[in-house]
Amino acid sequence: MTQTRIAAEDYLEALATHGIDHLFVNPGTDFAPIVEAFARSARTNRKVPRPMVVPHETAAVAMAHGYTMITGRPQAVMLHTNVGTANAINMLIDAARDRVPILLSSGRTPFTEAGASGSRNAHIHWAQEMFDQAGMLREVVKWDYEMKRGDQVGTVLDRAMEMAMTSPRGPVYLSLPREVLGEVMEKAPDSNWERRARPREPVPAPVDIEQLAEWIAAAQSPLVITGSLGQDPRDAVVLSRLAEQWALPVVPYNTRYFAISSNSPMFQGSVPGPLLKDADLVIVIEADVPWLPSQEHPPAGARIVQIGEDPLYTRYPMRSFPSDLTITATALSALLALEQALARRKGAHVDERRERLTQRSADLHAAWRGEVEQAGQGNKNTLAWLNHCLRKVVDRDTIIISEYSFRQEYCPLETPGSLFALSSAGGLGWGFGASLGAKLASPGKQVVSVLGDGAYMFANPTACHYTAQMQNLPVLTVIYNNALYGAVRRATLGMYGDGAASENDGRLLADLPAPAFEKIVLAHDGHGERVENPRDLPGALQRAAAAVRDGQQALVNVICP
Ligand SMILES: Cc1ncc(C[n+]2csc(CCOP(=O)(O)OP(=O)(O)O)c2C)c(N)n1
After folding, report:
1. DSSP track, 499-515
2. Ligand 1 within 6 A of CB of 483
């Protein structure tokens, strides 16, 4: 049977040509040409991405994010018109602030009320039309477009991908009208992708690096604060080397990635305050919020340096941190250049500082150990104890996903690229889906997500457990269950510690009496455990990890009252 070709077939092939392995979908009536194109690809043998149905948009986008953060290669998501797109925006905000490239697309309700192949034929096709479907996410994406004609699929995808992948990277959005996807095509789509050299990522100006090296060599109390350094795992290798050689204390503050091991004497905890107040040189690398100006600040005379791919965070409406030297560069290129510039210099205070910081690191570790020992002897699980017990299952090949609750202080990591935490935008519901994407990208690795009970519920857990089961993605989910929106309570007490809200310990609107999460995973053929007694936690984690090794998803509900 000879068959005409439709634009959706060219579109899927173009996705595959751009290295997109997966199309995470949550379909609707707008998908008919896409479904037809996938079905035809089995006959025509055209290369297309693997379609994966994910039964909630939050999980679909989080999976694409998780896959990309491991592989560096953007993936595509396709959702249903305006309603599916609306469900995805929370995760898109996370990806945008963390500069993770994703191609988000959705169908567009048919333009035509009758007369064309693909014209409206369902009640919803009228009410789902918007004046500007992309308008609701235009502030979040780097680029958006609506496909106008079938023969555009090649050039439009080329443009989408170069926008997503050019520094600073980020999500892009494409709306795909049904008539366009269903257009019958006569000639191959245009594309000049092989002639589209992408610009290099930014590298520092030598004069700036010389200046910074001078300042480091002279500094008595320098401090390095990082945030998303480590997105490229090589960042952490060079930073650790430089920090140890030059006795530079590093504070990964609300870190989203592995920046330095907590076993390094130069890891100086996760809050800048104590070192910030005495610093004479503060080097901020890829940190959108290096400290909280309402609570702490460096001394007036301290030199401040800000380094990053977009060091002004141009998409943040307000941000006023001082800077005496601002360098637009990837963390890696800046650190490598700095290493060379410092090799020609001698530091004035390195030995004294090394001694001081090594002692401070020993004191910090002693305090963290003390917290853990105390918790281990008590009768309540704590955040410190939970993280300490994770040592029993975390190995050098483990990928940790943290939605607020992982702490390297108690569970040191050693491997660059082993830690991924919630974007600084804080859109909750990311961790579980991201862990599924990470597992899909690295099936041989153990993937452990550490989530608050609130974060777990935001993820649409049934959709995530379902996907883990259907797609055979055995991940370990550990819930730090304080039956509370702890952050909400802290905020209430922070503003109204003496107010009426404090009478109830700030729990009004924050209490979250938790159901038996460990039973939810059972409905998806998983292994579930509930742990109330701290002494039972190591065994429970080990049993859950063993279940995961045997191919079952597992969840440990750690009650931390
Ligand atoms: C999508 C979304 N909705 C609401 C919030 C506001 N919020 C911030 S932290 C938090 C509580 C999270 O609870 P949990 O995950 O249990 O962590 P805990 O604060 O208790 O440690 C909430 C509701 C958010 N960040 N994202």
Report:
1. SGGGGGTT-TTTB----
2. no
Alpha carbon distance 37, 24 (integer Å): 15
Helix (H, G, I), strand (E, B) or coil at 491: helix
pLDDT tens column, 14-33: 999 999 999 999 999 999 99
Query: To test ligand 1's pocket by mutation, which of 404, 424, 493, 517 has the most ligand atoms within 8 angstroms of CB?
Result: 404
Give the whole-number percent of the chain exceeding pLDDT 90. Answer: 94
Q: Are 559 and 481 spatial neighbours (Cβ–Cβ below 8 Å)?
A: yes
Q: Which residue has the tokens 């795909």?
A: 176
Helices 57-71 & 431-441 angle (0-180, nearest 10): 50
Task: Determine the Cα–Cα distance for residues 64 and 232; give it in Å rounded to an integer.
Answer: 17
Question: How is 298-356 classified by DSSP, letter by letter?
Answer: --TT-EEEEEESSTT-TTSS------SEEEES-HHHHHHHHHHHHHT---SSHHHHHHH
Cα dihedral 198, 202, 207, 209 sign: negative
Place of tokens 């919630």: 422
pLDDT at 514: 83
Q: Which residues have a Cβ under 8 Å from the Cβ of 125 and sit 6 or more positions away? A: 29, 109, 110
CA 196 – CA 390 distance, rounded (Å): 46
**Alpha carbon distances (Å) from 117 to 6, 90, 105, 259, 537:** 11, 34, 21, 53, 60
Q: Using the mean position of ligand 1's atoms as its centre, give its distance from the Cα of residue 68 in Å.
A: 24
Measuring CA to CA, how many Å separate 167 from each of 100, 315, 505?
A: 10, 13, 46
- pLDDT for res 118: 84
Two structure tokens written together for 279 = 């610093």
CA distance linking residue 350 with residue 220, whole number of Å: 8
CB atoms near residue 192 (< 10 Å)? 9
The CA 131 to ligand 1 mean position distance, Å, reads 33
**Burial profile 412-444: b = 16 or more Cβ within 10 angstroms, e = fewer:** bbebbbbbbbbbbbebbbbbbbbbbbbbbbbee
Which is the closest atom of ligand 1 to the Cα of 456? 15
| pTM for the structure as a whole | 0.97
* CA–centroid distance for 269 within its chain: 21
Is residue 412 within 8 Å of residue 263, measured between CB atoms?
A: yes
DSSP state letter for 194: G
